[in-house]
């Protein structure tokens, strides 16, 4: 018992010291998506700013594929010392546990939120050869042919949106999975698939070039950047909200003091006026750099939202 009394204070004192010393060596930021998308670009912008502030390298490590499970699992099983972090989107945290039986980790237990970063509302985009300019026209086209869509795995936003839309309207869409959002968007541009779901960050240049067409946006109001594109609510499907969010996570046993230390650096990076003006605002990102505790509450609420959305899509949540 005397030994235990000596050890416990030592462990308690180690946590603040660990937080103050972070980062003691280069930090690896695992991104379970391929390079080139909006999340990857933001990860690199954050890494650059945190590295400059802390004088330690922050290296982005892209690990795409497997519905983001391998990359996410690498962080869930890493040492909880703040030197291996995860930057991912909502599907890794609140979709995979509902869609993938036997997931090798529990995101709510084995990962600790560092910071909720941004929220963005997605849009339905289609190859122009389809001829549709809105959701009613898309559904009319689907009555004469079996349309397909590009997704990036079970539980991804395209999978949920087109599943719910199909269940509501009695329409069947074929899912074509890709290794990430960027390949799904490029496949839509190339005509390999008819449509997908993405944000302005991924679709903007293709919309401007006329190689993609936006049919609807998933938010209460139209996007200022695309004022002529109707909302899903205007199309009669307001109960389906294809929003997505990005966040940074650490291994689940990471001490709260260390989470707060990392959060402070991430929040400072996200508050950079140049990043906001040149990247976040033009891409339609709403910044929510919530604290670790507030992030956990927001993520728990999103988990319940996804559970309900899956049931409306005729899917049986695993968790």
TrEMBL record:
<keyword id="KW-0732">Signal</keyword>
<comment type="similarity">
    <text>Belongs to the UPF0065 (bug) family.</text>
</comment>
<dbReference type="InterPro" id="IPR005064">
    <property type="entry name" value="BUG"/>
</dbReference>
<dbReference type="Pfam" id="PF03401">
    <property type="entry name" value="TctC"/>
</dbReference>
<feature type="signal peptide">
    <location>
        <begin position="1"/>
        <end position="19"/>
    </location>
</feature>
<protein>
    <submittedName>
        <fullName>Tripartite tricarboxylate transporter substrate binding protein</fullName>
    </submittedName>
</protein>
<dbReference type="InterPro" id="IPR042100">
    <property type="entry name" value="Bug_dom1"/>
</dbReference>
